[in-house]
Design goal:
globular; mainly beta; 106 residues; single chain; 1 helix; three-stranded antiparallel sheet; 12% helix; two-stranded antiparallel sheet; 5 strands; Alpha-Beta Plaits
Length: 106
């Protein structure tokens, strides 16, 4: 689906296509021993920062995740839900399964 952006200039109406954002959800778990919590910190490394960096490499565009929770320094998470939005990426090229996969180290 393509949305149209209405642009009124000098009484003329122009329509320009606007790329549609797609929202994706992740269920993650992590060992927080080496991190300063989930949320991005200005002076420390956090899980969210590392996840954003890894997703940006794989998806070839900047990614900003939003987590449905938070943890403190050194705290692990057995289950945390995260979502992010990206523009027009063919995510179907990746193979996803409903069962848990081998853990990935970020």
């Amino acid at each position: 689906m393509v949305k149209l952006l209405l642009n009124l200039t000098n009484g003329f109406t122009n329509f320009a296509p606007v790329a549609q954002l797609q929202r994706y959800f992740l269920e993650i778990a992590f060992n927080g021993t080496s991190y300063h919590g989930w949320q991005i910190q200005p002076n420390a490394i956090a899980v969210q920062q590392k996840l954003n960096e890894a997703l940006a490499i794989v998806l070839r565009q900047p990614v900003e995740t939003t987590g449905a929770g938070r943890t403190d320094t050194g705290v692990h998470a057995k289950q945390l839900y995260v979502h992010f939005e990206i523009f027009e990426f063919q995510i179907s090229n990746f193979e996803f399964r409903n069962k848990p996969q081998r853990p990935v180290t970020l």
